[in-house]
Amino acid sequence: MKIEEGFTVDAPADDVWALLSDPQRVAELLPGAEITERIDDTTYKGGIVVKVGPLVATYGGTVSFELDEDDRSAVVRARGQGKAGLGTADMTMNSRVVALDGGGTEVTMDSDVIVTGILAQLGRGMTQVVSKKMLQEFVARLTTALASEAKEAEA
Q: What pLDDT, in 10s, does the model give residues 53-88?
């Protein structure tokens, strides 16, 4: 399943890129996500809890980040195994941070997600609704974190 999303934030592109290129900070801002161990310079172990209506799906696995500092782009690959026989989830996401005229920043994301098991049975529509809700919460947390950092820098 392909998911294309984007958002803008009122913060300099360098600040947005600095936050989004830090896997630990991304996990802190993504609802239900955590990094538990660093495997090497680009790969981490962790997990995510996804809520779909009354269903709570918990996945454990790995995530890798390939960063292109000059282009402010990243390829993130995540692979997880659901607990209690919930199936698997694989995601490859390409993202890019672009400075906008006037000082804001646009972030674009193009994801390919493959889910097996019970979440796959719920259908593509439900998966997209949950993905969009998680992104909205992530963007709200990102915006708050960037505003907080800007205030600290001014002080």
A: 777 888 999 999 999 999 999 999 999 998 877 788
Q: Distance between CA 146 and CA 26 in Å, rounded?
A: 12
The model scores a pTM over 0.90: no
Q: Are strands 73-82 and 88-99 parallel, antiparallel or unpaired?
A: antiparallel
Q: Are 95 and 20 in contact (CB under 8 A)?
A: yes
* Cα maximum dimension of the chain: 51
Token output for 132: 């969009």
- For residue 7, the cross-strand partners are 107
Are the C-beta atoms of 39 and 45 separated by less than 8 Å?
yes
Class of CATH domain 2-154: alpha beta
What is the spatial distance between Cα 146 and Cα 149, in angstroms, rounded to a whole number? 5
Is residue 100 pLDDT above 70, yes or no?
A: yes
Query: Identity (one letter) of the amino acid at 80?
Result: G
The separation between the first and the last C-alpha atoms of the chain, rounded to the nearest angstrom, is: 45
Comparison of pLDDT for 148 and 54, the residue scoring more: 148
